[in-house]
Amino acid sequence: MNPLQRTLIEKAGHDNGFEHVLSPAGDAVTLASARHRSQAVVTALAEGFEVCFQPATSALLPELLRSFQPWAGAAGVFWVSTLADLAALLRRAASLSQALPNQAVSDYHAAVAQAVEAMPAEARGTEVERLVRQRVGQARYRDALLAYWGGACAVTGINVPEVLRASHAKPWAECADDAERLDAFNGFLLVANLDALFDRFLISFDDTGYLLTSARLSAGDLQGLGIQPGMRLRWLAREHLHYLQWHRERFLLTS
C-alpha cells in the first residue's frame, strides 16, 4: 500500500464514522471510532478495496448485507471498487453500529449520567429524575431508529424527519430493562398516522412484515388514513420478531 492509498483510506474513515486509525499492520489500515466499538480493516487492492469488519454486535453484518450484498464475500469481508463505494459502506456500518444493541444503551447511560449530574441535588431520585431519564432515553431511541431505517419511514419510505415517530412495539413502561427500551428492533420508525395507530394497537404487522388492521377501523377510516391493501415493512429482521409477537398479542386483544 502506497502513502497516497493509505491517506485516502484514512480520510474515507474519518469522514464516514471511523475517525481513528489504529496502529498499522502490514498493508492494512484498521479504522475505529470513539462513538461505537466496531472496527474496519481496509486493504488497498489493484482495483478497489477489501473491507473486513470486526463488528461490535452480531446484528451488524446481516444488516449490511441488505444494502451491500453484491459487494459481500465470506466472513464479513466486502469488496468495493471506488472511494465513493468505500465511503458509503463505512458510513452505513458506522451508523448501524451506533444504532444497534448495545451501543444505544451505553450512549444512554452516559447521557443520563451527564443530565443527572447537572440536576439540583434535591431533584435527584425524584419524579423529575425519572422524567429526565425517560426523555433522554426516548431521544436516544429515536436517534437509533433514524439511523437504522436510514431516516425514512419503515413502511412508506417517507423521509421527512418532522413527521417521523419512533414507535415501540413493547411500550417503554412495560419493558423489562433499558436494553429492551433502547433496542432498535423493539419497534419501527413510522409516519405520524401509522405511529398513532401502532401505539394504540390498531395496526400491527405479521411475521413477514405485512400490515394488519383492527376490525375497529372501517374501510372509510383506512382510506382516510392512507392505509392501502398490501402495505408492508420495507424489511424485517429476525430480531424484530419476538417484539412483534408481543405487540400482536395486545393487538388481537384490542381488535
UniProtKB/TrEMBL annotation:
Protein name per Swiss-Prot or TrEMBL: HNH endonuclease
Pfam hit, one: HNH_2
Organism whose genome encodes this protein: Gulbenkiania mobilis
Keyword terms of this UniProt record: Endonuclease, Hydrolase, Nuclease
Molecular-function GO terms, alphabetical: endonuclease activity
Annotated ranges, domain HNH nuclease: 153-206
Keyword match Nuclease: yes
